[in-house]
Amino acid sequence: MTNTYQDWYQEDLAYVHDQGFSDYALSAAPGILEILGQNEINSSDQNLIVELGCGSGILTQALTTSGCQVLGVDISAAMIAIAKARAPQARFILGSMFTVDIPPCAAVVSVGECLNYLFDGANNLPTLANFFQRIYKALQPNGLLIFDIAEPGLDSCDQATQSFVEGKDWLVLVEKSENPRQNTLTRRIITFRQVGEQYRRSDEVHVQQLYQSAEIADLLMEIGFEVKIKRSYGQFHLPDAHAAIVAIKPAKTA
Ligand SMILES: C[S@@+](CC[C@H](N)C(=O)[O-])C[C@H]1O[C@@H](n2cnc3c(N)ncnc32)[C@H](O)[C@@H]1O
Q: What pLDDT is stored for residue 1 in this prediction?
């Protein structure tokens, strides 16, 4: 069976992610704004910021509130619908970051391990190399690419782990298993969301390709970026087996 864009972060999981898992983007936002500011990318109509995997628009809102012009891209229509309500000043495109046209911009940002997902087919180092090339072309000189990735080692044992999180009108159950041979992480996600008197069940399976930050940095440097690998966005320390990458397109290229 072929999956379609409708299969991931459907209405209920998009709602649950927004309600219960916004901390990551909220905590990352000040550090990202700081990096942008340090590189003189701040509130200006000239400075377009493209946010890939914008989800429900948590970082988008922080960026637009600080005066930046933002284009948000996400593969989930339900996520985009929430983001539009949260950050009405931004523009949004529904589509995959791996195929969408990236317009000329001052920065490209992506938080929440969005580059790891295998939603739209192969996601491997050649796909990423091509993707980074497109971003490099779109960025202005001194432009920035900031994103975080999940690395192997999230779950060191081969066995699946199960957990749940609950909110006032929802419950989410997650079974996680890492395949160390293929460097993939699979999350089986079951949500129950209250609709009237009843709880509605939805099921999704998300598979991610895990990358070592050093191999990603090598790809970026081959393209011409100057690269820093970080373990935090400002005061926000990333979870274990996560890295943030800050890549700059130098002003003068050979
Ligand atoms: C963990 S969520 C993070 C959302 C948001 N950045 C945040 O931190 O709240 C991952 C997001 O990446 C999006 N995503 C995954 N693969 C994508 C792709 N190929 N193109 C665009 N969006 C994608 C998902 O739909 C989802 O909204």
A: 43
Determine the average pLDDT of the residues in 77-87: 98
Q: Quick one: pLDDT band at residue 250, thresholds 50, 70, 90?
A: very high
CATH of the domain at 180: 2.20.25.110
Beta-carbon neighbour count of residue 162 at 10 Å? Answer: 10
As given in the structure block, the two tokens for residue 230 are: 């970080």
CA-proximal residue: ligand 1, atom 26 (nearest): 55
Same domain, 238 and 126: yes
Claim to verify: residue 110 and residue 187 sit in the same structural domain: no
Measure the CA–CA gap between 12 and 30, rounded to whole angstroms.
28
Structural domain of residue 166, as residue ranges?
A: 161-208
98 lines ligand 1 (CB under 6 A): yes
Number of domains in the chain: 2
